[in-house]
Amino acid sequence: MIKTAETYHVSVLLNESVGGLDIQPDGIYVDVTFGGGGHSREILRRLGPGGRLFGFDQDEDAEKNIVGDARFTFVRSNFRYLKQWMRYYGVEQIDGLLADLGVSSHHFDDPERGFSFRFDDAALDMRMNKRAGMTAADVVNGYTEEQLADVFYLYGELKQARRIASAVVKARQQAPILTIGQLLRATEQIFAREREKKEVTKLFQALRIEVNHEMAALREMLLGACRLLRPGGRLSVITYHSLEDRIVKNVMRSGNAEGRVEQDFYGRIQSPLHLIYNRVITPSAEELEQNPRSRSAKLRIAEKTE
Question: How far is CA 108 from CA 50, 77, 114, 136, 180, in A?
Fold first, then answer.
């Protein structure tokens, strides 16, 4: 088990994402993906004595990295409950929110969590919250063939989703699929050799998203953030794949996850947010060299309108 904040996860786009919050010394900020605490520590470094920071994480392992600072409050919860927890703490408005939606390297490197296909004998788990909820094994063995195909297509964008689902169902009829190796062997004949790693990555992504209800949680969190942000408050979000990036982009441009644009009488777009930059921010060549896992990261920053 990886236990230290330094090795838990390397913070991606650290200066760009925290800088995009335009930290006010006495402001109230939320880091909804606390993880190893790298972004939170940088926010605290820029806050004054009167500032406050709330850090969300549903993973009990993240508690080992809690920041010893009176200005910091750790919330062990899924960030989809952002509004409820802010109400609990008596916070009506916040000055900024940061989200790094990537899975921590800690999760990929811990065989017990079942996030990586590098560990053949590891259990198919993939839960961010180890205390509750279904596992990837529950999905693989309990969903119908049609349900599996939908998951693989919608969340993995796999063109051969139906063939993969059929292979999984056929394999589990012989014996339950409980380990990563069993899942890989059940599907290995489908993926072309030269594309195998990329396709398997998409397969694992699809299962992880389904297990953790990631898309629904992201929509709820972003809409809650839109309501909580004070006028002029900032939203800084790092995404890693097209599904989550599409939702973030839609909310920042239109105020809803579907991207429905509403206009006033004069044709002006009505949205609670406006983009600070019209382009996405990506890691520098130097950061990519130091942290190859950041290569797919995209940062978008928006500000709450008056």
Answer: 37, 21, 8, 15, 13
Rounded Cα distance, 36 and 57, in Å:
10
**Secondary structure (H, E, C), 263-292:** ECCCCCEECCEEECCCCCECCCHHHHHHCH
Residue type, 305: T
pTM: 0.90
Handedness of CA 301, 53, 93, 218 (dihedral sign): positive
Distance, in Å, from the CA atom of 114 to the CA atom of 204, rounded to the nearest integer, reads 10
User: Which of these, 224, 191, 211, 206, lies nearest to 152 by C-alpha position?
Assistant: 206
Q: What amino acid occupies position 292?
A: P
Q: pLDDT tens across 95-132, in order?
A: 999 999 977 655 545 555 545 666 678 899 989 888 87
Sign of the dihedral through C-alpha 278, 283, 285, 286:
positive
* Lookup: tokens for 68: 């010893």
**228-263 as b/e, with b when 16 or more CB fall inside 10 Å?**
bbeeebbbbbbbbbebbbebbbbbbbbbbbeeeeee
pLDDT per position as a tens digit, 253-277: 999 999 888 877 777 777 899 999 9
Q: Are 286 and 220 in contact (CB under 8 A)?
A: no
Tell me the three-class secondary structure of 18-79, residue by residue.
Answer: HHCCCCCCCCEEEECCCCCCHHHHHHHHHCCCCCEEEEECCCHHHHHHCCCCCCEEEECCCH
Contact between 136 and 124 under an 8 Å Cβ cutoff? The reply is yes
d(CA 300, CA 280): 6
